[in-house]
Recover the amino acids of this structure.
């Protein structure tokens, strides 16, 4: 009887201690250290480490996005099959939040308090993740590689010491797009088509740094309202002959359909998020005249950006690795750009685990990511992580889509938020290859 | 000018779809005295049936006919199996049941047809027509939508005003007891009302899907706007539903184009509140005799 009582009491005590530890408001220096070696933190045992993530597996945001965790899972399985990291198998728990912030809070509570995850990996979405970011930080749960390009994951390390962005933020994407157009199409009359939230706002801020004067019209759409006719007609009326669009993939299809009905033919420049040729092509091919099924030609001549090699780059050694991983561990279906996204994130997490060493602690993991300076991976440009910034990948290149393939228009350009200049990337990460065996080592 | 015309034309096409949906609501209200919230997911299910057939290689029109036919069957079955048991209870019971049905059909569709966006083919071209050198936002598919809605409206008018069946349906809805005494087979009329309404609902589902993207939730916003359109028209009159639908489509398109798309839902609510406050019986209500 006594022994049976002990476990819950111990659990309660631990919980109290954790809560007490958090009272310091995320002051992580003060409560680091002091713990013994070996299995040493929540979610870590001698031979496992448990991590979790929240994704829209159902609902309107599910198309495409629901494939991200399947890619990550495949890569973790691949690593586990080779013996794991520091002798630990990675256990990955994925929960469905349906892209609804209320659900995100609930599933994150479950992950942290019930499943006792060591870290959150790749939690998806700006509105969804905003709902849990404070909770994760107050609980001291490392919140690595949020699947969203909002600035808030990395620009304020003091208030969110445990959160790290991953993909290039929308502001530097806007800056790089803006500079490209200002330099190469100085006569273009630019229209902006923006999602009415952080995504569109951050992008607009970046774009305006370089071509404020060329902008003739701005239209915003509300996600969920599928009639974008009035917005596209507005851009047409302003005479915009080049439209920069920060929108999600289904809205790429909708704007293309609407401009067909309006006889409006500007040059379209979709931000990376909205331009997946596979997904958008599958939606549009039915409507494009003379298109051949499966050749993804419906987005031909569209400009966009790229920060990890995509599924069309079959010669890229990283894509070859992802193909091997997917063939070996995938749950069936094709390798897609969303799965590659998940794998690339998982790769970075495995790098972090390896770098954090055998005595795995939450704070140790955070410190490892902060010293990621020379770490290379599938991303075309280096990470920006440091003790002062938790912003992710530092740059991207401008590409044009032809037949579903990305043709490079610029070298990889890197920048940072604010008025940091845009420079050509000198790290040469874009032409590196994965290590032998496809699993990073700890160095 | 061009923007004005295009915004108006886009609003009219969209308004026609709201009108089709409002017609289905009017039909069911007139023949059974309840508001059917499950109308939208029912239409979504039949549209997915059409899409499945089209994807299997059949022509658009076979899919179209199959959707209307399955609408007819679905409507009748739902009335017989789910609504009939609560027929004698207060009307609110049936309304709440339709809400339950809304959720159930949604979930079932997600399981059977999947949750991703899929494109739905259009019967005619999606390019805007050219008038005097400029393209206007009126596609052949758009014209088909408007013509289809006008036809349905006329058919419904004829049904309720000039046919025996229409009269019996109205009688069963207004006063089942008396109708029964007069020899009307009330149960049969209720089933017929549900079946016909589901056909019209399916039509609106097909019309809004054509040349666009569908997923299990694609009809959800139409529920709200179709309902507002029906209330604008007074929930009783087919002409009112169509005028209501077109008015709403136009107003919302202008709000979206000139004020901002985030205000669309708000504007619809405002219109609904204004109409319910100023003319509770709808724009086309005949002054009702005073109840004593």
């Amino acid at each position: 009887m006594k022994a049976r009582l002990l476990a819950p009491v111990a659990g309660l005590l631990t919980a109290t201690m954790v809560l007490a530890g958090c009272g310091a408001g995320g002051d992580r220096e003060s409560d680091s250290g002091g713990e013994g070696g070996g299995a040493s933190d929540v979610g870590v045992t001698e031979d496992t480490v448990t991590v979790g993530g929240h994704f829209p597996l159902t609902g309107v945001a599910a198309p495409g996005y629901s494939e991200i965790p399947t890619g990550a899972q495949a890569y973790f399985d691949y690593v586990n099959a080779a013996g794991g990291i520091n002798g630990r198998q990675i256990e990955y728990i994925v929960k469905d939040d349906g892209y609804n912030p209320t659900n995100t809070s609930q599933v994150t509570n479950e992950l942290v308090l019930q499943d006792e995850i060591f870290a959150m990996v790749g939690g998806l979405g700006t509105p969804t993740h905003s709902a849990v970011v404070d909770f994760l930080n107050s609980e001291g749960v490392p919140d690595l590689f949020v699947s969203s390009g909002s600035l808030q994951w990395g620009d304020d390390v003091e208030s969110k010491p445990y959160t790290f962005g991953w993909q290039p933020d929308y502001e530097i994407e806007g800056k790089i797009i803006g500079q490209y157009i200002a330099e190469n199409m100085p006569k273009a009359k630019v229209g902006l088509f923006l999602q009415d939230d952080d995504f569109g706002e951050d992008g607009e801020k970046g774009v305006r740094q370089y071509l404020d004067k060329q902008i003739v019209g701005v239209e915003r759409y509300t996600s969920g309202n599928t009639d974008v006719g009035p917005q596209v007609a507005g851009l047409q009326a302003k005479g915009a002959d080049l439209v920069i669009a920060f929108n999600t993939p289904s809205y790429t299809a909708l704007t293309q359909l609407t401009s067909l009905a309006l006889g409006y033919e500007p040059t379209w420049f979709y931000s990376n998020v909205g331009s997946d040729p596979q997904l958008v092509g599958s939606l549009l091919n039915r409507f494009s005249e003379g298109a051949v099924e499966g050749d993804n030609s419906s987005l031909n001549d569209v400009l966009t950006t790229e920060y990890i090699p995509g599924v069309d780059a079959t010669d890229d050694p990283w894509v070859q690795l992802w193909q091997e991983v997917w063939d070996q561990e995938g749950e069936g279906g094709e390798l897609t750009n969303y799965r590659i996204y998940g794998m690339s994130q998982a790769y970075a997490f495995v790098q972090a685990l390896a770098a954090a060493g055998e005595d795995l602690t939450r704070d140790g993991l955070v410190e490892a990511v902060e010293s990621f300076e020379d770490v290379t991976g599938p991303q075309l440009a280096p990470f920006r992580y440091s003790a002062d910034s938790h912003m992710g990948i530092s740059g991207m290149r401008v590409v044009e889509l032809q037949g579903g393939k990305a043709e490079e228009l610029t070298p990889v350009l890197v920048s940072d938020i604010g008025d940091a200049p845009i420079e050509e990337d000198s790290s040469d990460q874009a032409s590196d290859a994965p290590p032998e065996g496809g699993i990073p080592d700890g160095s | 000018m061009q923007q004005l015309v295009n915004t108006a034309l886009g609003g009219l096409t969209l308004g026609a779809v709201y009108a089709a949906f409002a017609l289905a609501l009017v039909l069911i209200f007139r023949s059974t005295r309840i508001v059917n919230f499950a109308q939208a997911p029912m239409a979504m299910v039949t549209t997915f049936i059409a899409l499945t057939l089209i994807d299997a290689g059949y022509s658009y029109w076979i899919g179209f006919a199959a959707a209307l036919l399955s609408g007819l069957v679905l409507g009748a079955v739902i009335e017989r199996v789910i609504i009939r048991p609560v027929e004698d209870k207060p009307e609110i019971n049936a309304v709440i049941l339709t809400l339950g049905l809304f959720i159930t059909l949604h979930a079932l569709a997600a399981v059977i047809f999947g949750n991703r966006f899929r494109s739905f083919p259009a019967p005619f071209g999606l390019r805007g027509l050219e008038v005097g050198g400029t393209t206007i936002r009126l596609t052949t598919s758009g014209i088909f939508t408007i013509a289809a809605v006008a036809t349905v409206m006329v058919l419904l008018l004829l049904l309720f005003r000039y046919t025996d069946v229409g009269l019996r349906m109205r009688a069963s809805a207004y006063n089942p007891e008396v109708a029964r005494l007069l020899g009307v087979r009330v149960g049969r009329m209720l089933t017929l009302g549900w079946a016909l309404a589901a056909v019209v609902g399916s039509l609106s589902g097909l019309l809004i899907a054509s040349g666009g993207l569908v997923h299990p939730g694609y009809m959800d916003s139409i529920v709200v706007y179709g309902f507002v359109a029906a209330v604008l028209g007074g929930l009783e009159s087919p002409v009112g539903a169509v005028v209501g639908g077109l008015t709403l489509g136009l107003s919302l398109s202008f709000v979206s184009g000139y004020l901002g798309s985030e205000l669309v839902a708000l504007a619809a609510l405002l219109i609904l509140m204004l109409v319910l406050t100023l003319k509770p019986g709808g724009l086309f209500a005949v002054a009702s005799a005073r109840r004593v």
In short: The CA atoms of residues 29 and 312 of chain A lie 44 Å apart.
